[in-house]
């Protein structure tokens, strides 16, 4: 980055329109990266402040103070205490909601005491008149000793003023503290604290003591002295309480002079809507209605674009095959890379639709009401109202769902949510379910209107969700983690969602999925292709053996090619692997060919269909799905002479795919979020055992 | 003495000075200060959590937390 760019950190309470402002300032110049040292995403964007000056804006998670209680909030503290020149912000832009200015100023006063130049942007001022609020901006600016700007991020008002204020603030570098915490609480105590180091402000030192969070630049000696202050925990707690009350007193004094609310002018739509959405009966009714609409849309709207993506990639493969010289590279492209990329992109429609709904529910403020409705129920299973969001998101993809657990403050509740989320039926299970259901469940109507196949699919979704709840309950009873469960959720005012925010949210989440899961699925497709098209000596002889076999003398060229392909597969590395695990999976009703599909789909479930397609030597493009199905249907089990995919085998496979942890990308994310391999391994083996045992029981009973 | 948990829907109260030590820091920071006016807006279907409005903030807190915060009822 160029040296003269101003680094701006965007901070504010949740629901203040921070994201709207970020989107207005940066537009499409956004990217998501990782904080160095902390494995959490950060959103950054470039903003043109003037003809010569750019700013790099970092959007920090919403927080009520810099005393963190959740992972999301601790990021804010960490990035503020960073003293190295590259990372620490030059200017902090605090976003406040005009309606809750008092509470928002608490965070502002803490930031100001860090002695970093600060701009205060008061958002949603377009509603000031309707709410009967008036602000004396110039006096407020003087009292707070900072740049104050009135904006409406949604209506694109005051954005240029923000840019100018950032430049002015950066040049002037006004940075005196707002509330001198030292004098009011315990002057001696804070004087002693201040004497420890002159490199840090008093408030920074105080934060290090209370939050146990030390920047790299602190010396060993200073740290030891600070640790001495931690001895008396109850005193620390008392002083933190006093500090907060003192800050509010200061804020009240300032607001009394500058901020007037005429309550008689306020209109209250909120309480009317709340009466419906949080109602004992209608509340749940409405929630389940919304869920129904979401699932209907995912299956209804996504089919067309998914088919389109599928056939486009099949055509692309054909095109490449026809255009390029036959050879290893072309094979790799046609059989490995192109289907691999297609296998990732095909999920975009479903994931985007689900995130569209989730973004709208979040933006409107309805999601907080769901959290409110569900908290008590979820708590019985060791989770928390906030766990409902990951569990819903998990029906698109477990990866972003697991990242959404960061707002849960109790580690135990968060861990349980992370561990059970992969049970919810994600979109990668759909192709597997779809093909198996169409093989073993007759397509007929029951009760005149319910489609039996659709009903089975619905039951599989219920099974996944039920298993998540049951799993959570077992973990809740067995995990011996002491973790304070503290729960407070703000119920934001209802808002009409901003199209811009929803668009960016969907774009960002979808991108995270494509690049996160995509890399692994693509890499695996290439490995799979290699293992299936290479093998030891017997592989090389496959073609010769088939051609020389007397049985094949009368076969047509097409039949012969298919026989060669399946003979090759049997002798390829992957075929040998399938043969090796056959004894283990035989009790579940599977043969080595299904075994191959099991092995490959441990990386990602959706590979199952593609692998079977390869194995039964037919092309995997969309036009031929019927053929894959027919091939699977006509596959005979040589031991019994019956169909390979009979009811028992099909059910056994369905149960296996419902429970087994077959997603490397999710395991990687769980490792990242829990910071140890312990939990992903427990998840992998626990879910694997459950899948194996359940499938075994199902197959043995049904066969 | 009453607590936030003993309010009826729509009822008002004032957070008492003596409960300062029982209010979690997080709630203090969100405006749950001694002396502040608090109103119970709604109770979730299974009688927990509670939806309150305090100092202009609309918050959902659990009953267990609410029962530790003492109040003076407004219209007594």
Question: Describe it for me?
Answer:
The complex is a heterodimer of chains A (703) and B (76). The termini of chain A are far apart. Chain A contains 32 helices and twelve strands. Among the domains of chain A are: 6-261, P-loop containing nucleotide triphosphate hydrolases (Rossmann fold); 329-340 and 499-702, no CATH class. The relative contact order of chain A is 0.07. Chain A is of the alpha/beta class and 703 residues long. In chain A, the strands form three sheets. Chain A has a seven-stranded mixed β-sheet, with helices on both faces. Chain B is 12% helix and 36% strand. Chain B is built from two helices and six strands; from the N terminus they run E-E-H-E-E-E-H-E. In chain B, a hairpin with a 2-residue loop joins strand 4 and strand 5 (57-61). Classes of the chains: A alpha/beta (703), B mainly beta (76). The A-B interface holds A 64-65, 67, 69, 99-100, 102-103, 106, 237-238, 240-241, 244-245, 248, 270-271, 274-275, 278, 280-281, 283-284, 368, 371-373, 375-377, 385, 486-493 and B 20-21, 23-31, 33-34, 41-42, 44-49, 51, 55-62, 65. Chain B: InterPro entries: Fe-transptr_FeoA-like (IPR007167), FeoA (IPR052713), FeoA_core_dom (IPR038157), Transcriptional_repressor_C (IPR008988). Chain B: It holds the Pfam family FeoA. Chain B: Residues 2-73 form the Ferrous iron transporter FeoA-like domain.
| Largest two-chain interface | A-B, 41 and 31 residues
Share in helix of chain B: 10-25%
List the uncertain runs of chain A. Answer: 617-626
- Note the total helix count of chain A: 32
What global shape of chain A is seen?
A: elongated
Protein name (chain B): Ferrous iron transport protein A
Organism (chain B): Polaribacter batillariae
Domain Ferrous iron transporter FeoA-like (chain B): 2-73
Keywords (chain B): Iron
């Amino acid at each position: 980055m160029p040296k003269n760019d101003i680094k701006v950190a965007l901070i504010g309470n949740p629901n203040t329109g921070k994201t709207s402002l970020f989107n207005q300032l940066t537009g499409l110049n956004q990217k998501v990266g990782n904080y160095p040292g902390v494995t959490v995403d950060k959103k950054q964007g470039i903003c043109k402040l003037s003809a010569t000056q750019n700013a790099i804006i970092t959007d920090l998670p919403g927080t009520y103070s810099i005393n963190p209680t959740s992972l999301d909030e601790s990021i804010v503290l960490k990035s503020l205490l960073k003293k190295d020149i590259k990372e620490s912000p030059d200017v902090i832009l605090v976003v406040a909601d005009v309606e809750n200015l008092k509470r928002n100023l608490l965070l502002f006063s803490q930031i100001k005491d860090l002695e970093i130049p600060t701009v205060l942007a008061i958002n949603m001022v377009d509603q000031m008149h309707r709410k009967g609020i008036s602000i004396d901006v110039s006096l407020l600016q003087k009292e707070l000793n900072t740049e104050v700007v009135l904006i409406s991020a949604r209506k694109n008002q005051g954005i240029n003023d923000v840019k100018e204020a950032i430049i002015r603030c950066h040049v002037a570098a006004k940075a005196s503290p707002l509330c001198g915490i030292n004098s009011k609480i315990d002057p001696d105590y804070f004087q002693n604290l201040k004497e420890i180091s002159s490199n840090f402000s008093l408030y920074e030192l105080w934060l290090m003591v209370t939050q146990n969070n030390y920047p790299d630049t602190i010396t060993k000696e200073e740290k030891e002295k600070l640790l001495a202050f931690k001895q008396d925990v109850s005193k620390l707690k008392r002083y933190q309480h006093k500090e907060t009350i003192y800050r509010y007193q200061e804020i009240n004094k300032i607001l009394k002079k500058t901020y007037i609310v005429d309550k008689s002018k306020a209109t209250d739509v909120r309480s009317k809507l709340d009466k419906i959405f949080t109602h004992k009966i209608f509340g749940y009714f409405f929630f389940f209605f919304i869920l129904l609409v979401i699932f209907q849309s995912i299956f209804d709207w996504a089919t067309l674009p998914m088919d389109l993506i599928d056939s486009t990639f099949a055509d692309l493969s054909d095109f490449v095959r026809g255009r390029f010289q036959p050879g290893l590279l072309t094979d790799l492209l046609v059989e490995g890379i192109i289907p691999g990329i297609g296998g990732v992109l095909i999920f975009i429609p479903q994931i985007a639709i689900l995130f569209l709904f989730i973004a709208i529910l979040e933006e409107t403020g309805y999601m907080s009401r769901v959290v409110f409705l569900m908290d008590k129920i979820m708590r019985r299973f060791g989770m928390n109202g906030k766990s409902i969001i990951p569990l819903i998101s998990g029906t698109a993809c477990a990866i972003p769902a697991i990242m959404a657990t960061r707002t849960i403050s109790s580690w135990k509740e968060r861990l349980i949510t992370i561990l059970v989320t992969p049970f919810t039926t994600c979109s990668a299970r759909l192709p597997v379910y779809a093909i198996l259901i169409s093989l073993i469940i007759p397509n007929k109507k029951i009760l005149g209107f319910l489609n039996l196949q659709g009903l089975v699919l619905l039951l599989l979704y219920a099974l996944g969700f039920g298993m998540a709840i049951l799993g959570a309950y077992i973990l809740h009873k067995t995990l011996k983690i002491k973790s304070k469960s503290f729960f407070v959720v703000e119920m934001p005012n209802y808002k009409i969602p901003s199209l811009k925010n929803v668009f960016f949210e969907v774009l960002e989440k979808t991108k995270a999925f494509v690049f996160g899961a995509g890399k692994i699925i693509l890499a695996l497709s290439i490995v799979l292709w290699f293992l299936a098209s290479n093998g030891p000596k017997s592989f090389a002889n496959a073609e010769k053996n088939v051609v020389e076999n007397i049985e094949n003398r009368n076969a047509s060229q097409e039949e012969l090619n298919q026989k060669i392909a399946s003979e090759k597969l049997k002798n390829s590395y992957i075929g040998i692997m399938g043969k090796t695990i056959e004894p283990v999976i035989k009790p579940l009703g599977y043969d080595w060919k299904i075994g191959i599909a099991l092995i490959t789909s441990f990386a990602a479930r959706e590979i199952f269909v593609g692998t079977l397609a390869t194995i039964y030597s037919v092309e995997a493009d969309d036009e031929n799905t019927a053929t894959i199905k027919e091939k699977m249907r006509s596959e005979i089990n040589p031991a019994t002479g019956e169909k390979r995919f009979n009811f028992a085998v099909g059910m056994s496979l369905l149960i296996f795919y419902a429970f087994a942890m077959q997603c490397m990308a999710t395991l990687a994310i769980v490792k990242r979020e829990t910071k140890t391999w312990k939990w992903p391994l427990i998840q992998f083996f626990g879910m694997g055992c459950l899948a194996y045992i359940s499938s075994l029981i199902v197959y043995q009973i049904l066969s | 003495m009453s607590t936030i948990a003993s309010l009826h829907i729509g009822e008002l109260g004032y957070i008492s000075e003596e409960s300062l030590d029982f209010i979690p820091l997080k709630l203090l920071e969100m405006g749950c200060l001694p002396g502040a006016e608090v109103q119970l807006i709604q109770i979730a279907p299974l009688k927990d959590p509670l939806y309150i409005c305090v100092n202009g903030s609309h918050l959902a807190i659990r009953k267990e937390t609410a029962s530790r915060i003492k109040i003076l009822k407004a219209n007594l």
